[in-house]
Design a protein that fits this description.
The complex is a heterodimer of chains A (747) and B (173). Chain A has 747 residues and is an alpha/beta fold. In chain A, helix 10 runs antiparallel to helix 16 and helix 11 runs parallel beside helix 12. Chain A is elongated and about 205 Å long. A six-stranded antiparallel β-sheet of chain A has the order 2-1-4-5-6-7. In chain A, strands 8-11-12-3-13 form a five-stranded parallel β-sheet, sandwiched between helices. A two-stranded antiparallel ribbon of chain A has the order 9-10. Chain B is of the alpha/beta class and 173 residues long. A six-stranded mixed β-sheet of chain B has the order 6-5-3-2-1-8, sandwiched between helices. In chain B, helix 1 packs across helix 4. The chains are: A alpha/beta (747), B alpha/beta (173).
Chain lengths: 747, 173
């Protein structure tokens, strides 16, 4: 503690439902040594822990031996529901709501100060925090964060300092030497460097590598974004490519040049309109930058407007259409007319050759009659042939070579007659067959002539029908005067010639228009590309100037602020380390003297001299490290036994206490069973030390009966007070025995 | 810096390779002349890289360029500056990182916390820079690179020497 704390002396501890203490218990403290005496489990350590819990809301979590202390649960572990302290600030308030409370009462130059920490009975179940309260000497109450602030402002130690410099828990003294972190904390406290170490640690926490990495990552991203912005194909690239595609050199594009192009575009449009005989309005000229966009918009729509207006070109379009239709009809009618002519000629030739329909009918009729006759003759010949066959049969039956008529005998008469009859009948039949076939062919030929005539007449009729249909269509396309012309085809040819002549006359004009509009369209596109390029250029200059924008400057300023903070922290850390080194250098001899003194008081002069216990420091640009070495500068701690380690640890603690007291430090030192691992000589030495320490600081020491307790009682010459605890009772819990006469008195 | 400037420096770096640092030094000399320096001495081999009289101040500069976000400063870089400081010069480290987001940083020496012979992140030198002078130099440097970047990329130190020698206030030592 600093000045404020130095003037505050702990006068009493009040416990309510804390660990084994059930009823409200008040432990009165005095200057000098306050010895808490009791058997194991009587509540000695609970009193020590109560001080810690009240100050920090924490208690020892692991003993030096590694035995867990059951944090938090232990606070209420063996308490009962007896009435007790109810007000967080006033420990005398007995409101009975089952809460746990510890109060520390300090005496100061201006009056009493009371620190209270309470925990509701259902705090854990409801997730409520402990409540810290301070009732200061003026009667003002401070709670929660304000109370913590009050403690800090009045020089109460931090948890780390407390653990390394103000107390010793069961078995943890030597542990402080074996754990690097604890050793650093203890030795830095011994050297009076706590605040500087704390400051350097805080600065180091600010300037971590991760912060630097974050800055670098942000910068890398920023760089990448700028690069993307600068290299991404932008409007300029696109407009430049468009210009190149349209034959415009982007390097030569200027706004003045574009205005000149626009003016020329308007002049050309005006000339073309005049030439085409169109009555269209053309803007006058381009003078202002905005006019360029207006001209481009007008020029883009102008070709469509021109094409939609009536004029010479529209007549040409009509003529072309008429000529096309006439031409198509003529092409269709000409073959139809030839077809009719050919059909007429064929019919005429047929009539001349084969006669008219009546004549052909008569011929057919005759042919059919001839055929019928031939057919009848052929049928008769068949009958005759059958008769001859019968006659041959009769001859064969007779089987005689004698003639039945003349009865003369003719050799093989029957055979000869049969052969003759067959020959004769065959000749007759053959002749009649041929006649019949000829008659049949004649019928077919007559029928064909009739059919052919019908066919020719039909063909002629159809050809004439088609021709008339097309001719009718043609007449509708002819000029009115020629609509009833005798020869519409000739009239059509004549009309076509006239139309073609008119088209030939108008065609160059239309060509001029189309050419002019095409040129106009191309000029417009080029002008639009140039204008787009100019606009893109203007836009790009804005984009490149991002780095001059206020937002960019703000980003740079923010980055500077952050980097400055980190660099400052780094510098302060280095500076703090320098201060640490200087201060440790200044204090090292005093510390080593005190350390040696207490070590020799505990272990005896000879042993201490043999050990040559010394703390050495090693400074680098960024760190200060500590070592405990022997007289030869070799590491001492690894070779020591537990008793010696404990002795050194206690010596470190006592040296700190004396040093703090000299500097206006704390008003008490808390030791919980410090004699562990110490032999009788060491215990005697420890008693001497405690007796000596009372010159500097009040000491609260928890001890079992005998050993150091006896030594203190019998040999300590300073002020000493014994507070005896009864054995823990299942009904009453931990209790304090009333002070015996003379025990709490100074000798 | 502007993208075009950075790009041009990249081209100069590719073209001049090992001479890049010296080429940039000459571009910085041109920049100082552009800003109205009445005397600029630039050294190619030993000694202070650039000495200049600007705004009635004698400046001595050691020029350090980096390819990326770091530069390396050695103890010998500072020795020459020490000598000039005793002669009344304002001694500066002129640092230019290689990233698009980097600009000239003119760092007073002493006055800048430098861990010598190690790669220094240029970003973490920013708190020490002479901002006013750095901003002026950076702005003019852009113009100089625009103007002489092609000469630097194609002709290197010789081409820039020829340009510098036309200035009456310039001297090559």
């Amino acid at each position: 503690m600093s000045d404020g704390g130095a003037r505050l002396r702990l006068r009493s501890i009040e416990l309510q439902r804390f660990r084994g203490f059930r009823a409200r218990t008040r432990v009165v403290l005095h200057d000098g040594i306050n010895v808490l005496v009791g058997d194991n489990g009587s509540g000695k350590s609970s009193v020590c822990n109560a001080i810690e819990w009240c100050l920090f809301g924490r208690e020892v979590e692991t003993k030096g031996s590694g035995i867990p202390e059951y944090k938090d649960r232990e606070i209420r572990h063996r308490s009962n529901d007896a009435g007790g302290m109810g007000n967080a600030v006033d420990p005398m308030d007995d409101g009975d709501d089952g809460h746990t409370a510890v109060a520390l009462v300090f005496a100061g130059p201006d009056g009493e100060v009371t620190l209270t920490r309470t925990r509701d009975a259902d705090a854990k179940a409801n997730g409520r925090d402990d409540r810290l309260g301070v009732l200061d000497a003026t009667g003002a109450a401070h709670a929660g964060v304000a109370a913590e602030g009050w403690l800090a402002a009045h020089g109460f130690p931090s948890w780390t300092d407390w653990r390394s410099s103000y107390c010793q828990h069961q078995e943890d003294a030597r542990h402080r030497l074996l754990d690097d972190h604890s050793l650093r904390a203890s030795l830095s406290a011994l050297l009076g460097l706590e605040e500087l170490v704390d400051l350097r640690n805080r600065l180091d926490a600010v300037k971590t590598k991760s912060h630097v990495k974050v800055v670098k990552r942000v910068e890398a991203q920023q760089s990448e974004d700028l690069l993307d912005l600068a290299t991404a194909p932008g409007p300029v690239d696109e407009a430049s490519a468009l210009c190149a595609r349209l034959g415009v050199d982007p390097q030569r594009v200027t706004r003045e040049g574009a205005r000149g192009d626009a003016t020329r575009l308007l002049d050309s449009a005006r000339d073309l309109g005049r030439e085409l005989g169109l009555n269209v309005e053309v803007p006058e000229s381009v003078t202002a930058p905005n006019d360029l966009a207006e001209v481009i918009a007008w020029a883009a729509g102008w070709p469509a407007l021109v094409r939609s207006l009536p004029g010479k070109h529209s007549r040409l379009t009509g003529l072309r259409k008429t000529a096309g239709e006439l031409s198509a009809l003529i092409l269709e009618i000409e073959p139809l007319a030839q077809q009719v002519t050919r059909a007429e000629e064929a019919l005429r030739a047929s009539l001349e050759r084969d006669g008219d329909r009546e004549r052909r009918a008569q011929a057919l009729s005759r042919a059919r009659e001839d055929f019928n006759r031939s057919h009848a003759a052929r049928k008769a010949a068949g009958t005759l042939r059958a008769l001859l066959k019968d006659a041959t049969g009769v001859l064969n039956e007779a089987a005689s070579d004698a003639c039945p008529v003349c009865e003369s005998v003719v050799p093989d008469l029957t055979g000869k007659v049969e052969i003759r009859l067959v020959e004769l009948s065959s000749q007759v039949v053959t002749t009649l067959d041929e006649a019949c076939d000829n008659a049949s062919q004649a019928v077919q030929s007559a029928e064909q002539q009739v059919t052919a005539l019908t066919l020719l007449e039909t063909q002629l009729t159809n050809a004439r029908g088609h021709l008339e249909s097309k001719t009718g269509a043609l007449r509708t396309r002819l000029p009115e005067a020629d609509a009833e012309a005798v020869d519409p085809l000739a009239a059509a040819r004549s009309a076509l010639e006239t139309t073609a002549a008119e088209i030939d006359r108008l065609e160059p004009l239309l060509h001029t228009r189309d050419q002019g509009l095409d040129q106009h369209q191309q000029d417009t596109e080029r002008l639009a590309a140039a204008a787009r390029y100019l606009d893109a250029l203007a836009g790009q200059s804005k984009r490149v100037d991002v780095i001059t924008l206020p937002a960019w400057r703000e980003y740079q300023d923010s980055l500077d602020a952050l980097v400055s903070l980190l660099v400052d922290c780094d510098s302060l850390s280095t500076l703090t380390n320098d201060l640490l080194c200087r201060r440790s250098e200044e204090r090292l001899s005093v510390v080593n003297r005190n350390l040696g003194k207490y070590f020799s008081m505990i272990t005896g002069e000879q042993r201490a001299a043999a050990r040559g216990l010394t703390v050495k420091t090693k400074a680098t640009a960024t760190r200060l490290s500590y070592r405990v070495v022997d007289a030869h500068g070799e590491p001492l701690l690894p070779i020591l036994n537990q008793a010696s380690l404990n002795a050194i640890a206690l010596a470190v603690l006592f040296a700190q206490a004396e040093d703090r007291a000299e500097r206006g430090g704390p008003a008490f030192l808390v030791l919980d069973d410090p004699e562990q691992s110490l032999d009788a000589d060491h215990i005697a030495g420890l008693a001497r030390v405690l007796d000596h320490l009372t010159t500097w600081v009040p000491v609260i020491v928890a001890l079992p009966p005998g050993g150091l307790e006896t030594r203190l009682r019998d040999y300590a010459s300073g002020s000493k007070h014994f507070i005896r605890l009864n054995a823990w009772d299942p009904t009453t819990g931990s209790t304090i025995r009333p002070a015996a006469t003379g025990e709490a008195a100074s000798p | 810096m502007r993208y075009e400037t950075w790009k041009k420096l990249d081209e100069i770096r590719a073209a001049t390779q090992k001479d890049f640092g010296k080429v940039v030094q000459k571009l910085l000399a041109l920049t100082l002349l552009e800003l109205g320096a009445t005397r600029v001495t630039d050294r190619a081999i030993q000694g202070i890289d650039i000495e200049a009289r600007l705004d009635d101040r004698d400046l001595a500069m050691e020029v350090k360029t980096g390819e990326s976000s770091t530069v390396r400063v050695g103890s010998k870089d500072l020795k020459g500056l020490d000598a000039r400081r005793s002669e009344g010069y304002t001694t500066l480290l002129a640092v230019l990182g290689g990233r698009l987001i980097d600009d000239w940083q003119l760092l007073p020496v002493p006055g800048t916390d430098l861990k010598l012979n190690s790669d220094l992140e240029v970003t973490f030198l920013r708190p020490y820079m002479d901002r006013a002078l750095g901003d002026r130099v950076s702005a003019a440097f852009v113009e100089i690179v625009d103007r002489y970047g092609i000469a630097a990329a194609t002709g290197g130190q010789l081409a820039l020497n020829a340009i510098l020698e036309q200035h009456e206030h310039y001297a090559l030592a």
